[in-house]
Each structure stands twice: as structure tokens, then as C-alpha cells.
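I have been asked to look over a protein record a colleague put together. This is what I was given:
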Amino acid sequence: MSNIYIGYNFVVSPLQPATEILIAELGYVGFESFVENENGFIAYIQKEEDANNILDEIYILQNEEFEISYTKEEIEQVNWNSEWEKNFNPIQVDDLVSIRAPFHPNPNLKYDIVIEPKMSFGTGHHETTHMMVQHILKLDLQGKKVLDMGCGTGILAILAEMKGATPLDAIDIDAWCYENSLENVERNNCTHINVYEGDASLLINKKYDVIIANINRNILLNDIKIYADCLNDNGVLLLSGFYEEDIPIIDAETSKYGLKLEEFIERNNWVALKYLKS
């Protein structure tokens, strides 16, 4: 049975930097995905994770420099699909990757990914997904074993297979993302991706050449040791889901386990880091 989500519709004035800060704070307390609009954004959280006091510790809501109001409603999967289909526009990354819905025309780029993301995070529109695609494009993945942790729609695993990776594991703790990734893997004719529902506990005794983890900062900090243990020597770890100011705390944790920062990409203050295991 698919999870039920609550949508918080935030109206923000002025939009920036309040929107950026609020999205970051909401990510830390369990909100999973965000859809920005001209008045602010809608933030989605699983109903079972929603609590009456969940916004009490959100600092920016107490800041009188900004006017922020919100309403909330329960979101059914079919409603999300309808809204997504009306608002989802195809995107392109570096003139090499197209990410589109089945009803969009094929721009005939080198890598064409067709998805229907439902509630899943990772349409390619968010800065973190966009940057992870850029990192993957630079990697030689031929014959490499790859993990996409927190796979969302499965986009990153799909692109990795298109670049020659095999075999691949895609894992997400959310049932909706798990089901959606299965659908998108089949839709893109991928045959080497195994999709699992769960968390980092599934990684015991697993080994990979490349690990991709686009998740919020707190989960990454908790799981970096596990990722390091699962990486083969000279393996690559790609991390995103946090801001540039979070790099020192991420770097302090990765350095404990022999991971060296090789490269980072920044996009609207979001970052994606590439680590090498020595």
C-alpha cells in the first residue's frame, strides 16, 4: 500500500532567501520533496511522520523579516500525478541528458530518460539531482558496480546503467519511491538495476565501485561510515542534498574513513561532492 502524504502550501514574502532557508530547515525535520511556485512552494511529508509540533523548531518561521503562512492538506497519489503532469516540463543537462515524461517529444540527446515521478523526489529539476547527473556524466562507469542510495525516481541509477554500469542497486526507504523506481527502470528498458525498499541496513557485506547518495544532510552524516565500508579501493562516493555551508561538517565525517574530496559542483548554494576512497 502506498504511503499517504501531507502537503504544506507555504506562501513566502519576499521569496528569497526565505524559501531556500525554509526548504533546508524542513528537510532536516523529515519533509521529503518540494515543488516551488510563484508564491512559495509546497512541501511534502509522509502522514505518519507529520506531527502537530513539527514546525515549532523551524527558526525562520519566527523571523519577522519574512512573511510566511501555510495551509496543509492530505495528498492522494492520483492528485499528485495530475498536478505533476500539468506542471512538469522536460529538462536537459549539459546538452547530453534529457529527462522527460512519456508525452514529451524526444530531443534526441545522447541519454534520454523517460520518467513519471508520482510523489518521488528526483525529477531532475532540483539542483541536487541536476548536479549528480553532471558528476555521473564525467565518470567511466563501464562494468562498474553502482549503488543509488535514496533513489527517488531512479533517475541516477538509470543514467548509470545507460553509461555502462552493471550491476546496480537502487534503494529507497519510501514505498512510493520504491514502486516508482521499479516502473521507471522498466520504462527505460534497464535490465541490470535491482530496486529495494529499505535503508542503509541493506548494505551489510555489499561492495560497490561507485555509491551515489542524494539525501538530506542528517541521514548522510549517519550513514557515511556504512558507505565507506561498502566502497572498493579507489571507489567513488557522490554526495548531495545539502548546502555549501554544510561542506565542512560533511568533510569532517568523510575524512574519518579515508575519503578524500576530489571535486564539488555548486548550484544556487546547493552542492554535490565527489569523494575518492584511498
